[in-house]
Design brief:
Blueprint lengths: L1 H28 L36 E11 L6 H8 L6 E4 L2 H12 L3 E12 L2 E10 L2 E8 L3 H9 L11 H16 L8 E7 L6 E8 L1
Parallel strand pairs: 1-4, 5-7
Antiparallel strand pairs: 1-2, 3-4, 6-7
Amino acid sequence: MRKEISKIKTVALSLFLIWSALTVNAQKELPKNNISNDTILPNTVVTDTIPVKEQIIEPVDFKKPKKYNIGGVTVTGNQTISEQSILIFSGLVSGQQIKVPGDKLSSAIKKLWKSKLFSNVEVYATKVDGDDVYLEISVTELSKVGEVTVKGIKKSKIDELMKETEFQVGAMLTENLVTTTENYIENHYREKGFLNTKATINTKLDTTNTNTEDALVLID
């Protein structure tokens, strides 16, 4: 009986030693809970990183006009005309409700064209955020008439002739202004019997004044 009990104790001790060895090995193989300095777990906030909120911009479906509130209007391309003046001409203001695309945008472009201050006018929707739309008015200003030199007629006749035209210093330099001035001068002298009169207006950029072109009027 004592021999049997002794055998049982020996087996039990052996099993306990085997179980202890397995437990120690298993603990060695398991990953530690400690996190190294260069490891970042999900949802961990890093103090030296600034989170960036991504803005969602909706596409505008031009086949299905939608009402928006104007979140803001910016102006680009202007040189001598103030942004405030352009906004007043356009009639577009922040907080205003418009339809995109719609009549108010078309009307804004027409108003800017009618001002006769620009050679190009475009309106863009730069961002759509929910019910808010952000607009950009892009313009190209017309050049202004700078110094005017007239050649081909007597000096005493120059002032009298040019006063009868709209081609004056500071006038917006449009193709229409150039053409109508040339036609006026030619008709003026043809009525006086100079049937072959030819008037030509050439312009060049004035590097000393912003958005200004000097003009040379040649009368043959």
